[in-house]
């Protein structure tokens, strides 16, 4: 059933009471199931992340991702967090769709009725466009807002075939993609190996341009994230990547300092040398502003730093002024009172829900209007906004952990043991507060992505390579005398 529709009633008209009940359900601001899921999440969180800025357990349960659904990739990035067995697995649309459906249903039933989820594995664009579209649709059916992860090395025709059904009509009103672009990658058409980040800028722009064209020609909206793996070799180029591409069309710039995880044949440097504060300072330099990441926290800030904000002209502004107690009070009201409100809903459902919320809690209207008025003043007033335009841009740093640390820490957690070693203790704390979950329908377990990639991927991919072997190359015909 589509969101916002009435249940079929065997050909009979629904009774007025049934209509009223359904209308009430559709427009109620707080979904009780979502609210209960969020409260459960708060109870599960370790004490050290239960801060006033914590979003998990307040307005969401965290992000989710797929695994083992299309492990293969046609690039050879250094490093790559996929295990070396991943490229022995054939990309198979039927397997992908069935697994995605099963994993998302499990997350729907165990975690929350809605969440953001990443369609991720090897390379999403190796899927046939119809299979890719079916996987996205399966995620939406399970209440997930999907984002496809890709190296972005595909043509507009692929995107169009994914976005349009066989009748030529849009299958989706909006698509979300994360494009991975950086000098660790090897295999891009036209630039097999980039020596500098600036060489990749035309490819970044070309990627965003395909989505602009899709919107123009077919009215399909988009959200794009730009992902960059950070290594000692390219860390110094972060400011330039942001400064040159902040108007390219990306709503998010996400940086992943490399970890020793995945295929060790592709580790080239000592990734432990990447200092998170130094990386964040370079992200700030590129953004041209301080990026406050304690206003809103997503799990443990040793894993994630996030700064929500927007550009007006060339200047980035945080959504909240961290030095204004009224803005902090607005943040607290948002976190305390909007849990279970599905803000990602279509406008025809969101508006009545917000109206009902305002009627039920009128003090929130004053809080929201006060924040809006202060923010408009803070960024220079209406004239500056009209002149410069508003470009929402989020900055993220996500630090995966090293497999050698995750394995013992996770195994001890599974035994119910807390380790004393400070490094492994930190790993355990971060795993317990993880904001990026992956589901295992076969065992009923939900695990942190660090555990998936650092511990479970090799065996999972070995089994998948047996299930979905690569097609055998034809043997060369024997020479005859
Ligand atoms: S535990 Fe790993 S996957 Fe989870 S949020 Fe931290 S770095 Fe990310």
Please characterize this protein's 3D structure.
This protein is of the alpha/beta class. The protein has a single domain, classed as TIM Barrel. The chain is built from 15 helices and 15 strands. It has helices at 16-27, 32-44, 93-110, 129-141, 156-163, 201-218, 238-245, 276-287, 325-337, 347-360, 363-378, 381-388, 403-414, 422-432, 449-467, and strands at 63-65, 115-119, 144-150, 174-180, 186-188, 191-193, 221-230, 252-257, 304-307, 309-312, 315-318, 390-392, 394-398, 436-440, 445-448. Strands 9-13-8-7-4-3-2-1-14-15 form a ten-stranded mixed β-sheet. Strands 11-10-12 form a three-stranded antiparallel β-sheet. β1, α3 and β2 (115-119) form a beta-alpha-beta unit. α3 (93-110) packs parallel to α4 (129-141), α4 crosses α5 (156-163) and α7 (238-245) packs parallel to α8. The chain is globular, with a radius of gyration of 23 Å. Residues 299, 303-304, 398-401, 430-431, 434-436, 448-450 line the site of iron/sulfur cluster. Iron/sulfur cluster binds at residues 299, 303-304, 398-401, 430-431, 434-436, 448-450.
Quick recap:
With 481 residues, this protein is α/β, with parallel strands linked by helices. It is built from 15 helices and 15 strands.
Number of strands: 15
What is the count of helical runs?
Answer: 15
Overall outline: globular
| Model regions low in confidence, pLDDT < 50 over at least 5 residues | 1-9
The CATH topology: TIM Barrel
* Major sheet size, sense and barrel closure: 10 strands, mixed
**Which ligands are bound?**
iron/sulfur cluster
What is the count of structural domains?
A: 1
Using only CA atoms, what is the Rg? 23 Å
Fraction of helical residues: 40-55%
């Amino acid at each position: 059933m589509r969101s916002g529709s009435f249940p079929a009633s065997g050909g009979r008209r629904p009774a007025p009471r049934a209509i009223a009940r359904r209308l009430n359900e559709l427009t109620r601001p707080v979904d009780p199931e979502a609210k209960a899921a969020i409260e459960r999440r708060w109870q599960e969180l370790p004490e050290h992340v239960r801060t006033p800025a914590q979003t998990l357990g307040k307005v969401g349960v965290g992000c989710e991702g797929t695994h083992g659904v299309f492990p293969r990739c046609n690039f050879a990035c250094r490093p790559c967090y996929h295990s070396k067995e991943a490229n022995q697995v054939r990309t198979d649309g039927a397997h992908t769709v069935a697994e995605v459906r099963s994993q998302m249903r499990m997350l729907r039933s165990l975690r929350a009725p809605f969440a953001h989820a990443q369609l991720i594995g090897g390379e999403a664009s190796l899927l046939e466009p119809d299979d890719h579209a079916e996987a996205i649709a399966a995620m939406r059916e399970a209440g997930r807002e999907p984002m496809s992860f890709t190296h972005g090395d595909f043509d507009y025709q692929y995107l169009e075939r994914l976005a349009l059904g066989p009748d030529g009509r849009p299958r989706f009103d909006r698509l979300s993609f994360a494009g991975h672009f950086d000098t660790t990658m090897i295999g891009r058409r036209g630039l097999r190996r980039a020596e500098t980040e600036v060489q990749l800028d035309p490819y970044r722009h070309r990627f965003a341009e395909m989505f602009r064209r899709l919107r123009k020609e077919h009215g399909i909206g988009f959200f794009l994230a730009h992902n960059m793996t950070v290594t000692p070799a390219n860390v110094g180029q972060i400011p330039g990547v942001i400064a040159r591409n902040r108007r390219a069309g990306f709503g998010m710039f996400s940086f992943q300092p490399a970890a020793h995880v995945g295929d060790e044949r592709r580790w080239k440097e000592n990734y432990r040398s990447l200092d998170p504060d130094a990386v964040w300072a370079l992200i700030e330099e590129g953004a041209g502003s301080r990026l406050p990441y304690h206003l809103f926290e997503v799990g443990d800030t040793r894993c994630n730093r996030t700064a929500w904000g927007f550009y007006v002209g060339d200047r980035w502004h945080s959504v909240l002024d961290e030095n204004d107690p009224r803005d902090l009070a607005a943040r607290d009201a948002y976190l305390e009172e909007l849990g279970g409100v599905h803000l990602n809903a279509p406008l025809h459902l969101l508006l009545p829900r917000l109206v009902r919320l305002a009627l039920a809690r009128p003090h929130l209207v004053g809080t929201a209007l006060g924040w809006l008025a202060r923010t408009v003043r803070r960024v220079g007033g209406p004239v500056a906004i009209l002149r410069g335009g508003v470009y929402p841009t989020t900055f993220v740093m996500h630090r995966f952990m090293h497999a050698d640390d995750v394995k013992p820490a996770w195994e001890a957690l599974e035994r119910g043991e807390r380790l004393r070693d400070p490094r492994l203790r930190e790993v355990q704390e971060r795993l317990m507060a993880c904001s990026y979950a992956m589901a295992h329908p076969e065992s009923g377990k939900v695990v942190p992505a660090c555990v998936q990639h650092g511990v479970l991927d090799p065996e999972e991919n070995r089994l998948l390579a047996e299930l979905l072997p690569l097609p055998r190359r034809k043997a060369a015909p024997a020479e005859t005398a």
